[in-house]
């Protein structure tokens, strides 16, 4: 199985003349090397295109190096009118960090605002109501952040951090994310419940298909009905569309759609589609917080997602590693993950660690030879 391109797979067990402290050094140097590669790639992309520049790996390697989060931060001041109207928001900005850890420059990348739970963002809008005020409040707070000083070897490229400010009012957002949220009318809910209780999937499928343009969640019911009727191709198409069109805002429905489609596309070896669906999902959050779908189903989809991230044209190794270690951490704390899934997770963690160590060892030996 391929994980890192242009590197030779080798198990740590067979690295000669190295002890445990060497492994720690090699791992650190490997992570630093990969971070610098990804940071340079991202900075170049932002300079010349400014769109579709993937920050995921820069963030991932910084997290693995424990260099991502600010040491000092302040909470932004909630805009008064937005607070009175009950609006919530999430603002994402890119911060350029100076050598001493202060914020040198910043650029707001996005603002989403709306009513209801800030995790689900059901019917929220990009650049929505009060976003100008939310963005200004976030920028004022970000300017006062202080980050850890970078080690000299990591200052070869400009230091960028993407950070988000979340504006949410106590008691206004859902106090239980595991309540199934929909934006259906009560009459529509009763109709769906009637068909479901009667196991009349043909009628439910027809009803959902006739209402696809009204709410996104009808796409889920069309998919689920087709799945129960044995129409797998139609079901996968609808589930895929649902996930990519914001299905995760519906929490349980989104998690089920993501788990089903990721398993399907993984089996047919469409790793890019697995990666696309995984990014659009909230499976990592669902593993820790969801309480309807089984941990077995969610963890199985997550390790497949992580595996596919290592196999796409532009591999996302840090993201894959974080997902896998998150599954392992969940199993240690809470259990509930099947043995066969943990075997795959541990194997993939070992594979990625081994190859990072190979890269780090090469850097250490080069430095010693100078």
Q: Would you mind describing this structure in some detail?
A:
The protein is an alpha+beta fold. The protein has a domain at 80-167. The chain has 14 helices and four strands. It has helices at 20-48, 56-64, 80-85, 131-142, 186-197, 201-209, 217-228, 232-244, 252-267, 271-280, 283-289, 295-309, 317-334, 339-369; strands at residues 88-97, 103-114, 125-126, 159-167. It has a four-stranded antiparallel sheet. A hairpin with a 5-residue loop joins strand 1 and strand 2 (103-114). It is globular. The two termini are 34 Å apart.
Helices and strands, with pairings:
Layout: H1 20-48, H2 56-64, H3 80-85, E1 88-97, E2 103-114, E3 125-126, H4 131-142, E4 159-167, H5 186-197, H6 201-209, H7 217-228, H8 232-244, H9 252-267, H10 271-280, H11 283-289, H12 295-309, H13 317-334, H14 339-369
Antiparallel strand pairs: 1-2, 1-4, 2-3
Q: What does this entry show, briefly?
A:
By secondary structure, this protein is α+β, with helices and mostly antiparallel strands. The chain has helices at 20-48, 56-64, 80-85, 131-142, 186-197, 201-209, 217-228, 232-244, 252-267, 271-280, 283-289, 295-309, 317-334, 339-369; strands at residues 88-97, 103-114, 125-126, 159-167. The model is unreliable at 1-16 (pLDDT under 50).
